[in-house]
Amino acid sequence: MLIMESRKYVWVNGVLVESKNAKVHVLTHSLQYGSGIFEGIRSYSSSEGTSIFRLKDHMKRFENSARIYSMNLGFTAHELEDAVVEIVRKNKDRDCYIRPFAFVDDTRIGLGTQGKKISVVIASVPFGSYFDDKEKGVKCVVSSWRRINSSIMPPEAKASANYLNSSTASLEAKNAGADEAILLSSNGYVAEGPGENIFLVNGGKLLTPSKDADILLGITRDTIIKLAEFKGIEVEERNVHREELYTADEMFFAGTAAEITHITSVDKRKVGNGKKGPITRILAEEYSNTVHGKTDFKEWLTEV
């Protein structure tokens, strides 16, 4: 759970504000209608001190989400990158989760957003493991709720409203005694987890759903693909059938918050031997080394 301490600061439209003073009206459009976009970014302790992972790529996606929803952020990507560095430095947290958020900051009742004020805030909080016991892995069920698609809402935008779809699937999974859900696309192919991309391993090959499955194009997903290719592991992006979840040798979630978390079972069917598999272990170790500045991928790190 992310808890913002009162001593922390939040960057609000270019100004550092104590978190206890960073407030919006209860009738704010974004609170009423979900009209917000966001990013999830992490910083880690590294040999250089504190480094933010793939900051430029996250800000590029943030800009793209804003374009999709015709939101004028009022700041360039470079200015927002500097703001992220500033807030992490100010809050003095080395291992933290960073949340840039842009929203329709208007209290007038009505769905329309044209001509309404857009506010941008950036917060950072100390952060460890997303799941209760990442080393133990997670049990999953395939959700009865389908992943949104481009004929309904833009899945490539990391938008607040999209995550009601995720929350509903996650709630269903937990009510069924599982740790997390796996959503299918509208045409029945495997899409992703509520807040994570998914990877399968079969016959030594790494497999992940393609863009056609209405997935969010995750920054961590892209990282894993590049690290796998660097390690000589074959990667295939394609439509994944549901039954392939039941026959995979290994399986894991990948995301900024989840990092690399192996999946032990799907619909009460054990994945492999139910433990973290060898390829998952290789990629998890390579990912950890990369975010902590221990590999050659230092161009992905922004020093604080």
| Euclidean distance between termini CA atoms | 24 Å
**Number of separate strands:** 17
The average pLDDT score comes to 95
Q: What is the number of helical segments per DSSP (H or I, 4+ residues)?
A: 6
Q: How large a portion of the residues is in β-strands, by DSSP E? A: 25-35%
CATH class of the largest domain: Alpha Beta
User: Which superfamily, in CATH terms, is the homologous superfamily of the largest domain?
Assistant: D-amino Acid Aminotransferase, subunit A, domain 2
Largest sheet: 9 strands, mixed
In terms of structural class, how would the helical and strand content be classed?
Answer: alpha+beta
CATH architecture of the largest domain: Alpha-Beta Barrel
Number of domains: 2
Give structural notes.
This protein has 304 residues and is an alpha+beta fold. The chain is built from six helices and 17 strands. It has two domains: 9-126, Aminotransferase class 4, branched-chain amino acid transferase, N-terminal domain (D-amino Acid Aminotransferase, Chain A, domain 1), CATH 3.30.470; 138-291, D-amino Acid Aminotransferase, Chain A, domain 2. The protein has helices at residues 29-33, 55-68, 77-91, 163-175, 219-230, 278-291, and strands at residues 9-12, 15-18, 36-38, 41-46, 49-53, 96-104, 118-126, 138-146, 180-184, 190-192, 197-202, 205-209, 235-238, 250-255, 259-266, 269-270, 301-303. The strands form two sheets. Strands 8, 9, 10, 11, 12, 13, 14, 15 and 16 form a nine-stranded mixed beta sheet that branches. Strands 1, 2, 3, 4, 5, 6, 7 and 17 form an eight-stranded antiparallel beta sheet that branches. Helix 2 packs across helix 3 (77-91). The longest helix is centred in the N-terminal third of the chain and has 15 residues, at 77-91. The model has no long low-confidence stretch (mean pLDDT 95).
